[in-house]
Automatic annotation (TrEMBL):
Biased segments, Low complexity type: 1-17
Name of the protein in question: Asp23/Gls24 family envelope stress response protein
InterPro entries per the UniProt record, alphabetical: Asp23
Region annotation Disordered: where it falls in the sequence: 1-23
Domain of life: Bacteria
Amino acid sequence: MAESTATPTTTTTTTTAGSPARLADDTAQGKTTIAASVVQKIAGIAAREISGVHSMGGGVSRAFGAIRERIPGGGTGTTNIAGVQVEVGEKQAAIDLDIVVEYGASIVELARAVRRNVITAVERMTGLEVIEVNIAVNDIHLPNAEGEEELPVMQPPRVE
């Protein structure tokens, strides 16, 4: 006959100091919601703070951003979130970033630094838990490619 010994189990919830308060907690004073555009702006600013990030967005969004900046009133509120897509729930956020990296920067180390900075900034400022930050490196900025980009030189085909 096997003896069964039951040990009492207790479930404790631990929170770390500095752990953000969750937004879904209703209080007697009300409920707080945060718009996705707010999370987009925070993530975009946090990503640009990292040395080695040249710009945000793919080629098309950068082109439209340059056009918007030239239109009076067209650059307000939209240019600072190019290259940032977010999904925001009541307690969590997921962030996708499209970045252009400076030539010579270690992309792996840069992505780690960007991810860490974005998660820290969004969680600290909003209280949302960032469940993922996906980073797509779309281009590398070359030191001599300032201003307008040069058109590629057309070479004759190697085969006929």
